[in-house]
Amino acid sequence: MNKKRKLTLVFILILLSRLYSYLHMKVGVENGELYLNGLTNYISVGLNLMALLIALWMSFSSSYNLKIFRKYPIALTCCFIAIVFWLGFDLFHVGIIETFYSSSSSLVYLTLFTMAIGCDEECWFFLKKLSPIMGSIFLFLTLFFYSILIVPLGGRVGGGTPVTYFLVSSFWWLALCSAFIKQYNKRTKIYIIALVIVFGLIAFSLTYRSWMIQTVLLILIIFYQLNNEKSNKNFKTVAYITLIIVIVAVVFSLSDWTKAFSTLEQKSQSDTRLFQYKETFSQIPLTTWLFGGGINVSYNSSIGGDNYTSIDNQLLMAEMHYGCFLAVPFFFIWFAIFFNLFWNSVKQKKTFYPEMLILMLWLFALGGLSVFNAIAFNSQSILLAIVLGRCFYINQNINIQKHEKD
Fold first, then answer.
1. pLDDT digits (tens, 9 = 90+) for 84-116
2. CB 3.0–4.6 Å: which of 101, 133, 297, 364 could bond 369 by disulfide?
3. SS3 annotation, the chain
4. Cα dihedral sign for 76, 77, 78, 82?
């Protein structure tokens, strides 16, 4: 099996795992909130683990894997040891089922080790071709579940629903093709922009402020990329007309669009982040923040109820469950590669690299900008690790060129 087929299989397996889980879901509305109980068993977990193993296999077989390790030996070693330790700790304390079924298992942080795939030119260019297709699939699934869940049942939408899952996943595929929008033909450019606008309108109808902000940032990136092309005058005219048509068609097709405006106004005057920090820091001891407490670390949340295990900030999420020995080296690599590429672009006096712009949105999301965005067994965790690897690859080439000039 060639690299392209392996890479495609990775994302198909993850998608099949989620679809299998939702085929057996139980749905209802309780206290005005839509709830969903999907099915997690050895089949859904096995598909995810199979995808992760294939991605790790592809990454470890890459010649760049050793170069990445030589660049960040301490951070990567600490990450791996911490993941193995917490895997053993959780297996002993909560058992094999909860350890492997949990979306916050320490195993999800192994996705970082798939970054060497992004250093492979063949895989990278194939991924850019694949991104509009995957973005379309995930957005279609978002609309499908929206029509069969939100429209007939109503209620507030939480993070466990397929609408939220596929919406969030679709964004990162759209981010990839949007950042490289200059490389597509005119029809594809218009199609990508239309998908982004549809995404933004769905986020608006669900009153997801953070994803609306991300949509605006993504649109700014799109037009930043297109602004340097003088040959895009006719395209821009068609694109603007397309945007207007999409906005009018989708907004007026939403039966609750006026309610969305009202809810959004209420949310704009409310705090949905600071109170989480107050609750977690007041209830979780300092030793847990430093050394971790495993999968079952929880606190009493004013919105999530008792024994709540999540927080809308992935940096704090990793600290809360697995301590600084996993969280610090893990996120150090993300930020180190990002700022290295940023600094290189400044020194070269060049426009920002598209890969760096995608990584910027991802770091914003992990830091709490985007609700329901998590490092988990999902396509975006592997996709963005590959983008991270691509950024590393660019940095390496810049350093090689610099040495050749010297």
1. 999 999 999 888 888 888 888 999 999 999 999
2. 364
3. CCHHHHHHHHHHHHHHHHHHHHHCCEEEEECCEEEEECCCCHHHHHHHHHHHHHHHHHHHCCCHHHHHHHHCHHHHHHHHHHHHHHHHHHHHHHCHHHHHHCCCCHHHHHHHHHHHHHHCHHHHHHHHHHHHHHHHHHHHHHHHHHHHHHHHHCCEECCCCHHHHHHHHHHHHHHHHHHCHHHCCHHHHHHHHHHHHHHHHHHHHCCCHHHHHHHHHHHHHHHHHHHCCHHHHHHHHHHHHHHHHHHHHHHHHCCCHHHHHHHHHHHHCCCCCHHHHHHHHHHCCHHHHHHCCCCCCCEEECCCEEEECCCCCHHHHHHHHHCHHHHHHHHHHHHHHHHHHHHHHHHCCCCCCHHHHHHHHHHHHHHHHCCCCCCCCCHHHHHHHHHHHHHHHHHHHHHHHHHHHC
4. positive
Query: Beta-carbon neighbour count of residue 375 at 10 Å?
Result: 21
Instruction: Report the chain's mean pLDDT, rounded to a whole number.
Output: 85
Question: Which of 120, 115, 135 shows the shortest CA–CA distance to 2?
Answer: 120
CA distance 204 to 370: 13
Angle value at C-alpha 165, between 220 and 387, nearest 5 degrees: 50
pLDDT digits (tens, 9 = 90+) for 251-279: 555 545 455 555 544 554 455 667 788 88
Q: Give CA–CA dist 17/378, Å, rounded.
A: 9
Q: Give the Cα-Cα-Cα angle 175, 345, 132 (nearest 5 degrees).
A: 15
Phi, then psi, of 206 in degrees rounded to 5: -90, 0
* Residue 71, φ and ψ in degrees, nearest 5: -75, -40
Tokens 């927080």 identify what position? Answer: 311
Instruction: Tell me which amino acid residue 26 is.
Output: K
Count of CA atoms in the C-beta half-sphere (13 A) of 275: 8
* C-alpha neighbours within 13 Å on the C-beta side of residue 225: 24
Which residue bears the tokens 């470890």? Answer: 60
**Inter-CA distances, 107 with 256, 328, 337, Å:** 40, 16, 22
pLDDT of 101 reads: 86
